[in-house]
Amino acid sequence: EDQVTQSPEALRLQEGESSSLNCSYTVSGLRGLFWYRQDPGKGPEFLFTLYSAGEEKEKERLKATLTKKESFLHITAPKPEDSATYLCAVQAGPGGYNKLIFGAGTRLAVHP
Amino acid sequence: DTAVSQTPKYLVTQMGNDKSIKCEQNLGHDTMYWYKQDSKKFLKIMFSYNNKELIINETVPNRFSPKSPDKAHLNLHINSLELGDSAVYFCASSQGTSGRMETQYFGPGTRLLVL
After folding, report:
1. pLDDT tens for residues B14-33?
2. SS (H, E, C) chain A
3. Pairing with B101, which of B45, B49, B50, B89 sits 20 to 30 Å away (CA)?
């Protein structure tokens, strides 16, 4: 069964303290991996798509990387406004239907 | 301009009632989705429509019935509401269903509380 596991469940950082979030997956034929950010009371906001192992994407203080079994979201010198839940999702298997399988998310709190 | 919008934002109702949630997207996308986010924050897909045709139908009680009057709208009707239906329901849309993964854009969610 396709599965996505995110760790840690929660992470508390001081402003400027860099760290990484992990998303490990077991799927039958990865077709794409997505990172979303979700603020309390809001819908997920798209951050990155990664399609193949070795691929990297960057946006401001965030950098996403992908290997054959996991993805990392690196946060460099975070600020309090980076506090949110970060969701990882994969699409796998045959067919052209965009069924996303989500992990439970990592709740990030960045303190000044 | 709101890309994916949902109404209502909050819905509080009694067990046994029937309710509907509406979703509209102005992105010109062909595919729309309904997801459920439970108290543990897991997002799980329920349904997907492509050009008004149902293409994904996960294991969801048949009390839930999606309807797509056109490709910009996807509504969710829930009959005989139960306590376990309390959750946040998100609508999403994507360009299409090509072989490459299409980015899904989410609405703000509808918070349903069944008493």
Report:
1. 999 999 999 999 999 989 99
2. CCEEEEECCEEEEECCCCEEEEEEEECCCEEEEEEEEECCCCCCEEEEEECCCCCEEEECCEEEEECCCEEEEEECCCCHHHCEEEEEEEEECCCCCCCCEECCCEEEEEEC
3. B89
Say what the pLDDT of residue A99 is: 81
Residue B3: left (phi > 0), alpha (psi -120 to 50), or beta?
A: alpha
Residue with tokens 């009959």: B79
Residue in chain A nearest B58 by alpha carbon: A99
pLDDT 10s digit of each residue in chain A, 112 long? Answer: 788 999 999 999 999 999 999 999 998 778 889 999 999 999 999 999 998 999 999 999 999 999 989 999 999 999 999 999 999 999 865 655 668 899 999 999 999 9
- Chain A residues touching B107 at Cβ < 8 A: 43
Question: Is the CB of residue B115 less than 8 Å away from at least one CB of chain A?
Answer: no
Instruction: Give the closest-approach CA distance of A33 to chain B in angstroms.
Output: 9
Cβ-based contacts of B43 with chain A (< 8 Å)? 44, 87, 89, 100, 102
Q: Would an 8 Å CB–CB cutoff place B31 in contact with chain A?
A: yes
